[in-house]
Amino acid sequence: MGHAMTDFLPGLGRWRRLQYSGPKDLAITAGAPHPVWAAVDPADLSFRRGVSGFYARGYSEKLPDGATVLNRVGRHGLPVDYVYRLGAGEVLVHGGIDLGVYRNDPNTSARIFPQLLGWLSGQETLA
User: Fold this and answer.
1) What percentage of the chain carries pLDDT values higher than 70?
2) Contact at 8 Å (CB) between 71 and 81?
3) Given CA atoms 111, 115, 117, 123 in this order, what sign does their dihedral have?
4) Which residue from 32, 80, 88, 93 could staple onto 56, CB 3.0 to 4.6 Å apart?
5) Which residues are CB-neighbours of 41 under 8 A, at least 6 positions away?
6) How far is CA 126 from CA 21, 32, 48, 70, in A?
């Protein structure tokens, strides 16, 4: 999680600040399904406490070959969350706020953190 500014992992895309002028430029849309975001409404990610931009204010560019985009940001659907294979494992990249902050939110975004822990432990399910 956070803004990857250097290539500390092979294939890692670089984070770029999004040029935005309003909520539509920061709206989150779903990409490919993933257990961490199962049954999470992108609208609950687009606004937090009535403000847009908490989830992400940037995107990743130059994604690695074979990357799967999980969530997109803005009018142009730029990648904010993605996964890619690396060695015998998989890298999950979230280019925004710590996903743990959502755990007590009063909407579907509260599902992210426990689902992330489940995915990391190999006990994930798609709802």
Assistant:
1) 91
2) yes
3) positive
4) 80
5) 107, 108, 109
6) 34, 12, 24, 13
**Given the structure tokens 């409404």, which residue do they identify?**
41
Is the pLDDT confidence value at 72 over 70? Answer: yes
- Residues comprising the chain, all counted: 127
Q: Are 116 and 44 in contact (CB under 8 A)?
A: no
Computed over every residue of the chain, the mean pLDDT equals: 89
Three-state DSSP state, 59: strand
Helix residue ranges per DSSP H, the chain? 42-46, 112-120
Instruction: Determine the pLDDT at residue 62.
Output: 86
User: Among all chains, which residue has been given the structure tokens 């294979």?
Assistant: 85
The reported pTM is 0.89
